[in-house]
Amino acid sequence: MTVPGRSSTIVVIPAYNEEATLPGVLADLAAIVPELDVVVIDDGSVDATSRVTAEAGVPSVRLPFNLGIGGALRAGYRYAVEAGYERAVQFDADGQHRADQIPILLDALDDGADLAFGNRFGEAGDYEVGFGRGIAMRLLRFGVRLMCRQRFVDTSSGFRAIDRRLIEIFAKEYPVEYMDSVETLVAVCRGGYVVSEVEVTMEERAGGEPSQRHFRLAYHYARLIVALLGSSRRAIPPRR
């Protein structure tokens, strides 16, 4: 794989069958934050995701088959470690995350956070979710608050920036199961790392299909809530 090496920060984009939205996402990143490097983790796509990435001139890591969001992100963080990046931004390929909001996350790292994530439900935006999903998210907030002893709003947000210490950990230990964002949030808090939640603006999904729907989504939410409230999750190395 090619190592650009022109920035200390890399934007990691996991992508599975995102040929419809990825061109716009890559174009926005190039126009708005051209100082940042980008890598696309093609998670075994069967559409033109790989071609779109190549045409945009963006480095990519193509996985031989679909590993899911957690596996793709672990591969992305491993890429970041091997290339020597000091910071990484986790960015969706479906158009929900906005390139102009990345500096907000990076500012939080500058202020001392080890991990910063975007809250899409604050005054900065009017992001809406369905009734059932909203209830599940409220339950997750309660569970995370019990585990972390901190109050967060958008616990499932995947729009994140992390520093080198966590990049190295996630390259080896990032969870590969669904709702990875919540599990890692809890693990990072319990490891003593500094977590900052900042208000950002996000868009509705521009295309493609969500990774989970209806009953599968409800199952995964219920499974995660039980795991968070009823058992001890795998720890990560503590912050020094």
Layout: helices, strands, pairs:
Blueprint: E1 9-15, H1 22-32, E2 37-42, H2 49-55, E3 60-62, H3 69-83, E4 87-90, H4 102-110, E5 115-119, H5 131-148, E6 160-163, H6 164-173, H7 180-190, E7 195-199, H8 214-230
Parallel strand pairs: 1-2, 1-4, 2-3, 5-7
Antiparallel strand pairs: 4-6, 5-6
Helix pairs in contact: 3-6, 5-7, 5-8
Task: Kindly describe this structure.
It is a single chain. The protein is of the alpha/beta class and 240 residues long. The chain has a single domain (9-230), classed as Alpha-Beta Complex (Spore Coat Polysaccharide Biosynthesis Protein SpsA, Chain A). 41% of the residues lie in helices and 14% in strands. It has a 7-stranded mixed β-sheet, sandwiched between helices. Helix 1 (22-32) links the parallel strand 1 (9-15) and strand 2 (37-42). Helix 5 packs parallel to helix 8. The mean pLDDT is 84.
How would you describe this structure in keywords?
alpha/beta, seven-stranded mixed β-sheet, 7 strands, 8 helices, Spore Coat Polysaccharide Biosynthesis Protein SpsA, Chain A, 240 residues
Full CATH superfamily name: Spore Coat Polysaccharide Biosynthesis Protein SpsA, Chain A
CATH top level is Alpha Beta
Total count of helical runs of at least 4 residues: 8
Tell me the total number of β-strands: 7
Fraction in helix: 40-55%
Strand arrangement within the widest β-sheet reads: 3-2-1-4-6-5-7
